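Structural prep section.
Before we set up the soaks we want a predicted structure of the protein with flavin mononucleotide in place, mainly to decide which crystallisation condition to try first. Input record follows.
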Amino acid sequence: MKAEDIQAILDKRKKEGGGLIAILEDVQAKYGCLPQEALKIVSKSTGRSMVDVFAVATFYRSFSLKPRGRHLVSVCVGTACHVRRSALIVQEFEKQLAIARGQTTSDREFTLETVNCLGACAIGPIVVVDGHYFSQVNVGHVSRILKKVRDGLDKVEVKGDERIFPVEVSCPRCNHTFMDRTHLIDGKPSIRVTIAFGNQHGWLRLSSLYGSYNVESEYEVPPQAIVNFFCPHCHTELIGGWDCPECGAPTVPMIVRNGGIVQICSRKGCRYHMLDLTRHA
Amino acid sequence: MAEKILLKNVGIPGSERLETYRSRGGYRALEKALRELKPSEVTDAVKKSGLRGRGGAGFPTGLKWSFVPKDVPGPRYLCCNADEGEPGTFKDRVILENDPHMLLEGIAISCFALSVVEAFIYIRGEFALGAERLERAVAEAEEAGLLGPNVLGSDFGLKVHVHRGAGSYICGEETALLESLEGKRGLPRLKPPFPASVGLYGRPTVINNVETLSCVPSIVQNGPEWFASIGTKGNTGPKLFAVSGHVERPGVYELPLGVTLRELLFEYAGGIRGGRGLKAVMPGGSSTPVITAEQADVKMDFDSLAAVGSALGSGAVIVMDDATCMVEVALGLTKFYRHESCGQCTPCREGLGWMVRLLEGIEFGRGSTADIDLLLEIASGISGKTLCPMGDAAVIPAQSTIARFRDEYESHVRTGGCPFKSAAGKVE
Ligand SMILES: Cc1cc2nc3c(=O)[nH]c(=O)nc-3n(C[C@H](O)[C@H](O)[C@H](O)COP(=O)(O)O)c2cc1C
Ligand code: FES
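Run finished without errors. Recording the tokens verbatim:
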């Protein structure tokens, strides 16, 4: 921890407005916890007593005085998830990580906590790891979730997974190919489309390996954002016939060469996709 | 299916953007309020519409507004409660993420009515996407002159701040929310004085829920009579119901107040999961007393639910099928409240820990009949004896499950454990 970093946070907050809680949130975001030295600096600079600062730091759940693990696993035990047996999921995480809830593994990789309702009860039981939501979790999913986290939540191991194979796709309207042979992802030509979200407008390249979720984009798409997809050639918006059965966002259709259609969910982070090789466009 | 008012834009691509909202008639109500109405006329319209608070207590919104003293000089504030922490509740989230401009328009009209020039939205820390969209919506609206110094070219100016919470259920309680906004621990204040006279930074303050404020534009646009024609007498307008638990199609449903529970569960939410039987429902979030399958014909509104000994609360409908152990439900919730107790009042802080130990005893086969009565006794020693209504809320799960399912507690005691345990492992 460096005193200058804390000072920078304090200066920024002084300029933008925002009281003690906002300052502590920034410190927590930077260090993953609230180091005592940092609290001392905050206390001195804000003129709030150490008792006061400490009281606020221990009152709110998002603050932690002790360092947390690299990955934070939050299992919802709110009522709606509870009646769908989330207690068993907590037990399974405890067993597999060999820690109790509230603890951190000795290698500092995982912290396990329980939370009460994440406001996503309709798709419970909910487990959130580092901001990634896993819905309708059951005990059998636990080891898979942990493996995914260890592998990196955004990365997909391509080699040796037989469910992964390459596809070539084109626009359902103008039939121009989306394949970009100059830009490789997973070592294969990528699928290039145009996307828009918020005020941003730019390219997105998807892996052409069906089953891989690797993407690159001009602008960082915020998690959970629903993105509008366009054909880079005819600029038609790609709108699917139905909504994603997992998250309700619209799906995006693309024509598969040699027949068939692939639909992917337009929400960042949602992994729904469907390949229908029997349907001819 | 009734016409949608609160969810009319949900599902439209880019619904969270200003251009989409405006293209669908958004901000016309604000324009109408500023051009054609006096602030007091807006308050009168809200009064006449019969709108009652959607945050839990169902307090008439127009009446609440009229408590703000007119003649006190200096600033006054409006706080939008977007803390949505009541277990089972996920309705405000839908508005925050999908239609933030509807909320902002509601806030702007309400501030105009109350002569407020600075408003705060206190959003739950976990709602990262909602906060992001809300912040962007504020920026968009400021740029378009819909918020900021001269709203739509008028003399009325408004600054809206988005404040993110840091993970605490009690901060949803209005006075704790004010403390938290001031950068302190969320410890509820003693009332009176009420926030309407002494609120944020000691100034007159109105606190309203997201859904409440989101009803305001349509009241101004379509008139209070129109709003009052939806729902039942004394319980007017549309309501968002967040249905979760053991139903086939959980989700948020917008229906007029007064729809029956049966209709909501079986026509909209697809019935009980796996064709099982309905056992119990918490009709308004975890702080509302459970009702049983026999009461499924109750109308989902403030007064009808109160008449059967429960409450509409936040409109979070938690459904439990016949394989659910009520002792376990009560235990889980009592633990939650014990953890979230702010610790100021001894009955709540100490009593809830005691109740958890007794409930654990019963659930895990160490309980006695005397423990069941003791639970009720402790509960009555907490209820009504705390600074804020959290004490009352916290004992409701145990109290109401004992009241309706005492035989289940007794069979735990008799058989020395939970009769549902074997089922527990099997579900899912
Ligand atoms: C323990 C507790 C938690 C509460 N949590 C919330 C909440 O998360 N959101 C909310 O809108 N109201 C919550 N309330 C109700 C608020 O105190 C307040 O009544 C409400 O925000 C007023 O808005 P309304 O009149 O529009 O309903 C809570 C109350 C208590 C006692
Ligand atoms: S109870 Fe788990 S998300 Fe609401």
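Observations: Chain B has three domains: 18-229, 232-321, 326-415.
Flagged for discussion at group meeting.
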